[in-house]
Design goal:
single chain, alpha+beta, Beta-lactamase, nine-stranded antiparallel β-sheet, two-stranded antiparallel sheet, 11 helices
Amino acid sequence: MAVASLALTLALLPVTGQQAGATSRADRAALDAAMRQLLATNNGPPGVIAVIDRYGHIDIHSAGTSQVGESTPITGQDHLRLASVAKAFSGAVALSLVAQGTLHLTDTVGKWLPTLPSQWSKVTLAQLLQHTSGIDDFSQTKAFQDAVIANLTNPPPPATLLTYADPELKFTPGSEYEYSNSDNIVVALMVQAATGRSYEEELATQVYGPLGLANTSLPSGVAMPAPIAAGYQPDPPNQPEDVTELIAAGWAWASGGIVSTPLDATAFVRGYARGATTNAATHAIQMTTFRPGSSEPPGPGANSAGLAIFRYQTECGTVYGHTGNTSGYTQFIASTPDGSESVTVSVNSQITPKTNPVAFAALQKVELAGVCTALGD
């Protein structure tokens, strides 16, 4: 594959082994090797970037290319689609409002959104955030998929997305874990109902502003701000297909529509994991309420589901964050609970364990190597 032969591009800040934020040479070498292996994998992505932040010392590793046919690597300032990492953003907004008393974890769908199916009325905000609601995943229905294909660039209003879900609950709320894109659509609609403001406005007020995210947005259409790391779909034996602006973000909205940069994603996960967008009491509940369940796609190590955050217990230590994949992109963001050490891994291709198991295994090795580099000693 042509991109596999591209030279590894490293952009390292001048840190030394004596500084608190320094990473070991062996850890960095292992991460770089894992990235080269990923690019060399059959149907691997054109490019990969890993941002390691230890105590404010940023170490950026980028291999491959941001544009097929070019030699430019993905940079920390390039915009990519965050996919389901957007669910952590909806969690940040909701938990910020819980801290302010505008919402409560025990608030029900019926309280704020009485026009939604009556079967959902007793589902709580906490259950939505932890994917224990039992609400059907609208994105997995044929009706939704047919609607997207019929009108890729013109999504309906967010509430319409839920009309593609079966109104019948799949299980008693709180009794089981099942990842559902519907959950975070409902969360965002509850935010709007409780505040009287748009979800996009609340994102800016509760998350972008406090965390200094100047390059993060929730568009509704297909356009992305420059600079862009283009997203690709494998199309063997042809060159990968550019799908960067194929599907409007509004088809995923609060469940997967966020566009951001690796550096902004890093700032977000560090702030989110340490509770910078909520209060101590709410954050304590978020970080102690876990049950078996993986993010989509699974992150490295043993996955557990919390309230809009996942715990990844790896051989190098435990981190908290989220993963995501969508057409053209796959993401992993994670941090220690105090926000001092973090890793962000982004690739410009959709890689899942079902569609590309070999490349996905290679991607998980990159993610694990990133965690090990971030946590160091």
